[in-house]
Design brief:
The complex is a heterodimer of chains A (about 120) and B (about 110). Chain A has no helices and twelve strands. Chain A is an all-beta fold and about 120 residues long. In chain A, the strands form three sheets. In chain A, strands 2, 5, 6, 10, 11 and 12 form a six-stranded mixed β-sheet that branches. Chain A has a four-stranded antiparallel β-sheet with strand order 3-9-8-7, with no helix packed on it. Chain A has a two-stranded antiparallel ribbon with strand order 1-4.
Chain lengths: ~120, ~110
């Protein structure tokens, strides 16, 4: 069965600090997708990034970057120079391609990031 | 393009009452989902649909029912509400072309007293 672990329940940083959110996944499949979502205090879920299992290139988008390492089954998310607006719960999710069910996501429990001014 | 919309935003139910949570998407996605989010527990899949007329159970389907008569709509029915159903409910949709990225509605907060 697939599983996503976000070991950091809560992280608190001061503005302008860099912060890394960890995500470790388990899957028996060779084809899968990994996702990060942001849930700000307003409650909606915002899609941030998708990565498929055949693409191990790291991605950078502004202050956000993602490090995908199949060797350690990790898909970590780094925010550089954090800002108060980054305060949110961040979810990592996994979608397997096993049995044609690759449209279903398994979510981690989330990491609450608080950025203090 | 409104994306995924949900109504109501908030509702209080008494134990034993029933209600329907509405979900509509205008992106012509064939896959739709219902999740519940409990504090500190992430999201759990209740039901999903791979197209009009086709639905299937997720991880936590007990106490809920769904139907999918059109591509756009995927209502979630709660029969005989119980306090354990107090939660935030999210509807989402996806399609193959976006590599299964799910796009979420704003959520419905339900309180059962």
């Amino acid at each position: 069965a697939q599983k996503v672990t976000q070991a950091q329940t809560e992280i608190s940083v001061v503005e302008k600090e860099d912060v890394t959110l960890d995500c470790v996944y388990e899957t028996r499949d060779t084809t899968y997708y990994l996702f990060w979502y942001k849930q700000p205090p307003s409650g909606e879920l915002v899609f941030l990034i998708r990565r498929n299992s055949f693409d191990e290139q790291n991605e950078i988008s502004g202050r956000y970057s993602w490090n995908f390492q199949k060797s350690t089954s990790s898909f970590n998310f780094t925010i550089t120079a954090s800002q108060v607006v980054d305060s949110a719960v961040y979810f990592c999710a996994l979608s397997e391609a096993r049995g044609g069910s690759n449209y279903k996501l398994t979510f981690g429990k989330g990491t609450l990031l608080t950025v203090n001014p | 393009n409104a994306g995924v919309t949900q109504t109501p935003k908030f509702r209080i139910l008494k134990i034993g009452q029933s209600m329907t949570l509405q979900c509509t998407q205008d992106m012509n996605h064939n896959y739709m989902y219902w999740y519940r989010q409990d504090p500190g527990m992430g999201l759990k899949l209740i039901y999903y649909s791979v197209g009009a007329g086709i639905t299937d159970k997720g991880e936590v389907p007990n106490g809920y029912n769904v139907s999918r008569s059109t591509t756009e709509d995927f209502p979630l029915r709660l029969e005989l509400a119980a306090p354990s159903q107090t939660s935030v409910y999210f509807c989402a949709s996806s399609y193959l072309g976006a590599e299964w990225t799910q796009y979420f509605g704003p959520g419905t907060r339900l309180l059962v007293l």
